[in-house]
Structures are given as structure tokens and as C-alpha cells.
Amino acid sequence: MSTRPLSSVLVANRGEIARRVFVTARAMGLRTVAVYADADAGAPFVADADVAVRLPGSAPAETYLRADLVVAAALRAGADCVHPGYGFLSENAAFARAVEDAGLVFVGPGPEAVEAMGSKLAAKELMSAAGVPVLPSVDATGLSGDTLEKAATEVGYPLLVKASFGGGGRGMRTVRDPAELAEAVEGAAREAASAFGNGTVFLERLVERPRHVEVQVFGDRSGTTVALFERECSIQRRHQKVVEEAPSPAVGPELRERLHAAAVAAARAIGYVGAGTVEFLLEGSGDFWFLEMNTRLQVEHPVTEAVTGLDLVRLQFDVAAGRPLPAAAVSPTLSGAAIEVRLYAEDPARGWLPQSGRLADFAIPADTEFRPTSGPGIRVDSGVTAGGEVGVHYDPMLAKVIAWAPDRASAALGLAGALARARLNGLPTNRDLLVRVLRSEAFLAGETDTAFLDRHGLDVLAAPLVDDAGRRRHAVVAALAGAALRRAAAPVLAGLPSGWRNNPTAPQTTAFDAGTVHYRLDRSGLTADVDGEPVPLTVLGTEIGGPGRVRLDVEADGLRGTYEVHVDGDRCHVDGPDGATTLVERPRFPEPTAAVAPGSLTATMPGAVTRVAVAEGEEVRAGQLVLVLEAMKMEHPVVAPADGVVTSLRAAVGLQVETGAVLAVVTGNTVTGNTESGGNRDAS
């Protein structure tokens, strides 16, 4: 078997996966090349690369999904191989073939293997022939009316509508009521076509509350195919993985052997070379069914690296260069437990809508950033940095945070602690949800399945870590910090404690969105309340830490702690031992603004209108679909907040809208501004 030394790699991707590949590439002595869209010109991954090539435009369809531009960029930069990362073109057989036709090495499986697994429908047929158990399914593309109903009846309810191409839950809908079938098929096909360029969808029997277990496989050009243990990715929201771990708490030696055998059989059935993942649905009985095979590196690959000590990206480069898998991969060992969480910019209070904007702070306690192999502690793989922008064009994942420990409970609690101590200011995130899941009794007991979040309730698991008393305490701390900053900038008596009064006088007032703080500091100490609710607090020390930053040493209820406050415009970000809060300070003299007409449906984030389901003058019912926005690689249905008539329709398909834009007005109701979020992201 001949080998081909590799010297320069272009990563046909962005964000944290591009940075992750660059780490190993540099360690192997490879020159690194990035491609970037205009929206990513200032992104960290571009600066990480030795050289970068611009792809004009911002939308994925005109940049990262343009195989011709990516291949041309590789040739222009002198790269001799292309690593696809995950998402975008990573599972596009035509792209893999174009890379090879250009004389470059594709760091992944051959086009034929990608093609064989590119269609989930065709893959299921191949797997069935190879003896791998599969669920019943029917191609729904082009079906409608009675024909579609008949196909659904054959599969059986409840069922899933799934995109045949792509992954990550995009183009997927759950259907329990036949009345919902047509809209689910139409929506899934539309989303799949937008995300993957192919609207083929199929119906598949829904397995209730299974575990989602996948096996990491690797093959080399000499015919060796191995399984590198399993990962469990059961905790999901809208079919999007949230928490991943290795090994699975539900898999013992006998079941692991059967899973490995099925995964290796699946890989060998298509002559697989490189890194791949065979995904299964696992029932409590120990029965499992083939779900899909991802012909690329997975988002959650770090947990496998942590428990095996193998650098999977290095193995990808070795196999692509023609080298055989090393002995450590052929006979892998399993050590300890690793857990990964996906940290997203999304707002739990607004239906989990993805968020865009500037990150005022982004700091997660970690041992070594981008450590590619195992070891105790915390690893952070991120595509963003403090002060950077999260745009509207791509997935809003901020980071993957990974913990390894000798046992599962230690890994979970260590990861929860790192997340709780992180400074994540500027955009809402799912941090509190992740911390509560990791600390929950059910998770620590290994009682996980795909219905975990539904069963335990997002209203409970996503509740803010800071309770009501803590929020009031944070409001007082924020008010004191703001006063300290103003006093420090005063031309006279800058050293006087902020809020100090030598004689009795009216208290100082600071109004936040969460309440109004009244406080007075005199010889007897601090007196404060929030909306009349007393907040007992003693300030032991105040330190200005830089522009807009204050550290306060505080004692409350006999407990002493340090609070970090970052005042960023009208926003006050407070990080303390009891959690984090962002408060918006209200102006003392607000400017009058134009009122939004009652019944207005407004855009909660920038996006593009992909569908308009009503006409002006049409009567609508509460909850009826009015239009669909696409933003940050997700579809967001906008529904009527109540019964009424569409008296104004200002949206059209293809229209780009900004946050707050009025899309339609429904009169005959009293609700203002309503959007219902939905949809799913890409990546594994």
C-alpha cells in the first residue's frame, strides 16, 4: 500500500471544527489554509490559519456550499489535501469527487462510500442486506393526499418525517396525528432543500423513548475496520443533540460487542475508509436499530478521544496519507468517562430562539484549550472569543465543553462546575439548562433517553440558576457597580464611596428591567431594596477592574462572595457564586418611540421569509401559521396570536427582515408581537 505525504491542508469549514483540525494539522507539521465568507472575515478560525482565502458572500449557499469555489481556493493556496469538517459539504459525494479530480487528497471516505450513505433511504436498504437491523420506512417524496396517507399507515403512527440527505435533525418532523402529516412533509422537504440542496424525505416508524447510541468506526486502505467504542447522545431537544458521553451508561460488555459487530458490518458493507459513525436507536430490552451512518467526523468526537487517548483527526490524516491504523487504534482501550455539552446562543425565555450579536465576555475555565487527546479536566473547543460577533447566517453554537474523569459522576459534576463558573455575557445561552441536566439525579443515575427533557420538563431544567432572592441581590450589586464607575470618573472626590450620604436624604434609584433598586450608604452601612423588597447586603470591598468592570466583595445572609460586574452600555452583566444575571438599565428620561400597532407580528431576529401562508384580508385562528422565517440555519414559524383578520401583510418570500420589523398585523385580538420557534440545526 503506497503512502502520499501531506504537507498543506485546506479545511472546508468554519468555526470550532476548523480550529480543531488546525490544532492537529500544525502538530503534524502541515501548513493550514482557511476559507471564509464575508461574515466570518474577523472570526478566530481565519486568524488561526497560516493563510486564508475569501469566498465572496455570506450565505452558505454562495460560500461554504460552493464546491467549485472551495476546490479552487485549495489549488490557489497550494494545499494538497482538503479536510471537510462536519456539516456543509462534508457528506457531499460530488464534493469529495471534485477534490480527488483536482489531484487533491480528500481527508475522508471515498466518494462511493459517501454516496452510499448520502441517502438515508438507500443506506437502510444496504444495511438490511448486510444484516444490520433497520426500522420500516417509506419514501414520501412527491406523495400527497391519499397516497401519502396510505404510506403513513403502512409505516404506522407515531412516525418521523426525515430528510434523506443531511443530518443534525434538520428536515425532521414528528407526526402523531394524520392531520399534521401533509404540513410536516412539506415543511421537512422545504427545510431539507434549503439546508442540503435535496428535498427528499421519508417516513420512518418512531421508536418512543429510545436511547441514541452510536459507534465510532475507522477503516484504513489495507482493509482494517475497527470500532472505537460507543457514545450516547440521547439528551436532545428538537432532535438536536445537547449532551453526549462515552461510554454509554446503558451498554455493558455483551451489548457493546453486538453494537460493535453491527457497526463494523455496516462500514465493511461499503468498503469504508476513514472516520465514520454508525448511529443506532437502543431500547431497554437491548434491541437496537440502524438509524444512519455519518461519513465524517462527528461534533461529539472529543469524548471518544478523551476515553481512548486517540487523536481522531490525526488518524484521519494518517489514513488519508495511506498509512495503516496504528496498534493503539486496532486494539483500543477504554479509560474513564467523558461528557460533552453543546453551548448555544439561544434564549430559553423566548422559545429557545437562536441569538445573534456581540459577546461581551466569553471565558470558560479549562485546562488546555483545544487539547486533542485525553486527560483529566476540562477541554473547550470554541469558534468564538470575547468581543466577537455571533452572526445570523450560521449555527449559533458557541462552544463544545468536554470533561474527562475516572468515573461518570465526577465528569458530570466537574463539567457542571466549569459551566457554572463561566463568564458568558452579551447573549442568552443554554448554560443553565446544561448545568441543571448534569446535576440532576436522573442524569447522574444514567437514566437518559431521547425523551429526557420532555419527561423532566424544560420549565424545571431550564430554570435560571439564580433564584428570586439572588436576582434582587444581583440588581443591588449592579446598581452599586454602576455608581462606583461613575464615582471613579468624577472630577472631584473620586475616592468617596459611591452612594455615600453624610446626612439623611432620599435614597439613590436605579431602574432595571427586572426591578427598581433603591439604596443609601451612610454611617450605619448600606440600606437597599428592590421594588420595596429589602435586600440585606454588606459591601466589604469595591475594585475597579478596567473600563466598565467592577469587582465587589459582598456579604449576604452570613455568606461572603465575590461578584464580577461588567457594565456594557445599558446592560449590566453580573457573575457571582450564585449564578449569572444580565440586567438592562432603563433610561431616566426615555425618548418617545413609535408604538407598534396592536396585533403586530414582529421579527424576533434577522432572517429571510421563506413562506407566506396567508393573504391580506384572510381570517385566521389562534396558532394558525402566518409565515415562516429562516435564520441561523433554522426555520421559525410565525403564528397568529389569536383569532382575527390579517389587515396588513408586509412580508413576501425572499424578503430579508431585521429584528423588530413588522411582518403582518392581525386585528381582532389584544396580543402584540408573537413568533413561535421551531426547526433544527445541522451538525450530527
At the first level of CATH, the class of the domain at 470-584 is: Alpha Beta
Give the number of DSSP strands.
40
Name the poorly predicted regions.
669-684
Provide the CATH topology of the domain at 470-584.
Answer: Glycoprotein, Type 4 Pilin
CATH architecture of the domain at 470-584: 2-Layer Sandwich
The secondary structure category is alpha+beta
Task: Tell me the strand percentage band.
Answer: 25-35%
Principal-axis shape: globular
Residue share in helix = 25-40%
Structural Rg: 27 Å
Average pLDDT works out at: 90
Largest sheet: 8 strands, antiparallel
- Number of separate helices: 18
Domain Biotin carboxylation: 5-458
Protein name: Propionyl-CoA carboxylase alpha chain
Keywords: ATP-binding, Biotin, Ligase, Nucleotide-binding
Domain ATP-grasp: 124-321
Can you offer a commentary on this structure?
This protein is of the alpha+beta class and 684 residues long. Among the domains are: 8-107, Rossmann fold (3-Layer(aba) Sandwich), CATH 3.40.50.20; 136-205, ATP-grasp fold, A domain (Dna Ligase, domain 1); 470-584, 2-Layer Sandwich (Glycoprotein, Type 4 Pilin); 600-668, Beta Barrel (OB fold (Dihydrolipoamide Acetyltransferase, E2P)), CATH 2.40.50.100. The chain has 18 helices and 40 strands. The strands form 10 sheets. An 8-stranded antiparallel beta sheet has the order 14-13-10-11-12-15-22-20, with helices on both faces. Strands 3-2-1-4-5 form a 5-stranded parallel beta sheet. Helix 4 packs antiparallel against helix 5. The radius of gyration is 27 Å and the shape is globular.
